[in-house]
Each structure stands twice: as C-alpha cells, then as structure tokens.
C-alpha cells in the first residue's frame, strides 16, 4: 500500500455516521484461520446467505460495469432479502 495514513482520513469521512459497513475480500484458504482470529470472527457468528447474480449469457451487464444480484439469509424469508444493482467503476486496461 502506498500511504495508509493519506487514505485513512478520507475513508473515515466517507463512512462517518453509517450504521454498518460491509467489506468484501477474497482470502486464500491458507490464511482463513488467521484472518478469522484477527477480526474476532468465528464460523458460528457469520450470516449464511444464498446469493444469485443476474446477467445475460454473454455477460453484457458485467461488461457495462453493472452487477445485479439478490441475496437471502439462510432460513429467513421476505424481510431478510435484499436486491442490489451496483454500478462498478471500470478501469481501462493498461
């Protein structure tokens, strides 16, 4: 990372007042146990979810920078379901 201190203030301002923040990360299998411990997580305090993504067979939405999904917590109906249409910033290939 270039400068963690340079981005800390910006991120704090962006999320100030939020009720919750969702962080998504891909963690290699070999690091899962350490990561769970580092963030005080266990396999018992997670929220299992069914997640479905929608697109055309040729992935036209993804190519346009759009991700359409719905998710539902396991064992929960209606109130525990949410849908999202998320535009993603597409960076040009260098």
Low-pLDDT residue spans: none
Which structural class do the helices and strands define?
Answer: alpha+beta
Number of helices: 3
Lateral strand order in the biggest sheet = 1-2-3
First-last Cα distance: 20 Å
- Helix proportion: 10-25%
Strand tally: 3
What fraction strand? Answer: 15-25%
Characterize the largest beta sheet: strand count, sense, and whether it forms a barrel.
3 strands, antiparallel
Describe the structure.
- The longest helix is centred in the N-terminal third of the chain and has 12 residues, at 4-15.
- The chain is extended.
- Strands 1-2-3 form a three-stranded antiparallel β-sheet.
- The protein has helices at 4-15, 32-38, 60-63, and strands at 49-54, 66-73, 81-87.
- The chain is an alpha+beta fold.
- The mean pLDDT is 75.
